[in-house]
Amino acid sequence: MPDVIACRNLRKYYADVKAVDGLDLSVASGECFGLLGPNGAGKTTTIEILEGLTESDSGEVEILGLTWRKNERELRERIGISLQETQLTEKLTVFETLRLFRSFYRVGADPEELLRDLSLDEKHDARVGKLSGGQRQRLAVACALVGNPDVLFLDEPTTGLDPQSRLQLWDIVQRFRQKGGTVLLTTHYMEEAERLCDRVAIVDHGHLIALGTPAELIAKLQARNVIEFTSEPRLEQAVVEAIDGCAGVTAHREGWLLRVHSLAEAVPRLIDTVEKQGAKLVTLSTHEATLEDLFVSLTGRELRDA
Amino acid sequence: MREKTRIRPPIIELALARTKEFLREKEAMFWVFGFPLILALALGFAFREKPPDRIPVGVVAGPNAQQRLAALLKSKTLLPRIMNEQDARDALRRGKVSLLIEGTDTVVYRFDATRPDSLSARNETDDVLQAAAGRRNVLVPREERVHEQGARYIDFLIPGLLGMNLMGTGMWSMGFTIANARMKKLLKRLVATPMRKTDYLLAMFLSRLIWLLLEVSVLVAFGWIVFGVRVNGSLAVLAILCIVGGYAFSGIGLLTASRAKTIEAVSGLMNLIMMPMWLCSGVFFSYERFPDSVKPFIRVLPLTLLNDALRAVVNDAAGLSQITFQIGLLAVWGIVTFIIGLKIFRWQ
Question: Could you report the predicted ipTM of this complex, rounded to two decimals?
Answer without folding.
Answer: 0.86
